[in-house]
Amino acid sequence: MTEKTIRVLIAKPGLDGHDRGAKVVARALRDAGMEVIYTGLRQTPDMIAEAALQEDVDVVGLSILSGAHNALVPAVMEKLRQSGLSDVKVFVGGIIPKPDIPNLLSLGVYAVYGPGTNTQTVIEDIHQATHKPTD
Amino acid sequence: MPIPDPIAIRHGDRLALSRALTAVENNQPESRELLSALFPFTGQAHLIGITGAPGTGKSTLVNQLAKNLRREGHPDHPPQVAIIAVDPSSPFSGGALLGDRIRMADLAGDESIFIRSMASRGALGGLAHSTASFVTLLDSAGFDLIIIETVGAGQAEVDIASLAHTVLVVEAPGLGDDIQAIKAGILEIADIIVVNKADRPGADNTARALRVMLEMAQSQTSGPQGKHISKDPCVPSTSAKPATAAWDPPVHTIVATEGKGVQAVIEDIQRHARYLKGSGLWRQKEATRLRRDLEALIRDTLVNQWQQRRDQDQFEQVLADVIQRKYSPVEAVEKLL
């Protein structure tokens, strides 16, 4: 048996005080058969990249409500790259103003989700993002 | 994904190690070769198991232990610590929420600590099927101490006893009366008992009940040493008794969130390692574990071989005959094998 279980790190960078959205997503991904590693509040980009490396995740989900996404997301992407994890797929959820989304996507984030996103969309996008082309 | 390089793993390449753990966990065919290549370099690490009911504070204790153990030993070569944290997989979706890292935030930023969360993936003994192989990889990568935190365990999840050298059972006040402590199971495997949340009412009563229970156990048997070894039918029970004095499992009361009492636990972990080495039990535990691993591997291999060459039509025919009560399942096995 060599089936691959998708592993996802759900991380909250920055100084947000609550993590309800992150927990809802974590729970939905668990129910979709994924192994979800949740690291809790107030993670630095270094901590997130290190956890992604140790846990060998396929996907990192960043939950940001603080408005600091334009600083935090580039920092996380850079740390992931430095750790040799350029192949890890990243999505962002939280309160992200529309005009900021293209910038985040240009950094290599594959999706940005706002409030009210259906968790089924998140799940389907993960399956699509981690689908490895047969080479 | 390419096969991780065994040399890179031995030289401390953390990414190679992490990818190798995944390959082993997913039972990729190449991972067997990798484990074989690394096996000669294992047998160095002290394996410390942490078990206990959900919510007793296992992860918080692991956080404290790892943080404090890093300060032990020679200042130029502080011990390298690996942590395997096992949480249950959902029996319905197969997914898992692995949350042990939340309590281990203090350890982030220390490159000599490696934490890996692991889902149990259907295994029932408190560990996952590939936890022992994870230990092989981490041991060969040079980690001196490997802390294995089991699934929140109740009474039957005792696989950790045959894997770890030193088993800590974590209790908390208010989880049951003293009859719970006398029941068979998890307390029998404890080398060190930790009553966490000692700042809550009832902690002293819990500790006292546990001590009384342990004294009863000792007055009835010659001592708890080799307790989960002598039951192994392959090891003669006489050889399980070392010449040295028996190990009396100490009972500690701690407050893990504040680190109170943790240093005394660490001293007992180190004392237990010296005791095992001095009494010859270290080697004996190792031998018992490898014997079990080997037997399990033979069992799995034989089943696989049989499944590959079985005649499906014959199998269905025999099954149909069993359903019609023409033969018993035992007779059917004789026909099929």
Describe this entry's structure for a reader.
- The complex is a heterodimer of chains A (135) and B (337).
- With 135 residues, chain A is of the alpha/beta class.
- Chain A has helices at residues 20-31, 45-55, 69-82, 101-106, 119-130; strands spanning 7-11, 35-38, 59-64, 89-94, 111-113.
- Chain A has a single domain, classed as Cobalamin-binding domain (Rossmann fold), CATH 3.40.50.280.
- Chain A has a 5-stranded parallel beta sheet, sandwiched between helices.
- In chain A, α3 (69-82) links the parallel β3 and β4.
- In chain A, α1 crosses α5 (119-130).
- By secondary structure, chain B is α/β, with parallel strands linked by helices.
- Chain B has 3 domains: 1-41, no CATH class; 42-279, 3-Layer(aba) Sandwich (Rossmann fold); 281-337.
- Chain B has a 7-stranded parallel beta sheet with strand order 4-2-5-1-6-7-8, with helices on both faces.
- In chain B, α2 runs antiparallel to α5.
- The model of chain B is unreliable at 222-243 (pLDDT under 50).
- The chains are: A alpha/beta (135), B alpha/beta (337).
- Chains A and B meet through α1, β2 and α2 of A and α2, β3 and β4 of B.
- β2 (35-38) of chain A pairs parallel with β3 of chain B.
